[in-house]
Amino acid sequence: MQLPILRVDESEAKVNDQLTPAWMNLLLQKYRILGKKGEGTFSEVLKCQVIKDGTFRACKKMKQTYESIEQVNNLREIQAMRRLAPHPNVLELQEVIL
């Protein structure tokens, strides 16, 4: 069941239009997108709320597309987050949506 997106402001609507349909469908099953927090060369960060419990998360959308989960797991950022967890100054990697 696909849940409707909660639109908070105009910047959020722009972010939603940029998401790929497959990624958006997976994301919307678990999260409400509340807005765009930032953007870098390789990714953008979205503020999301977990539908089940109302907690907030930062969801990072990579600009490059990947063919397999192995390609994602080989990213230095993903490897570093897994090696450093748990650490008080590093966000915990919750899941990877491909």
From TrEMBL:
Q: Does the keyword Kinase apply?
A: yes
Q: Which Pfam families match?
A: Pkinase
Annotated ranges, domain Protein kinase: 31-98
Q: Which GO terms describe its molecular function?
A: ATP binding; protein kinase activity
Q: Give UniProt keywords alphabetically.
A: Kinase, Transferase
Write the protein's name: MAPk/mak/mrk overlapping kinase
Q: From what organism does this protein derive?
A: Plakobranchus ocellatus
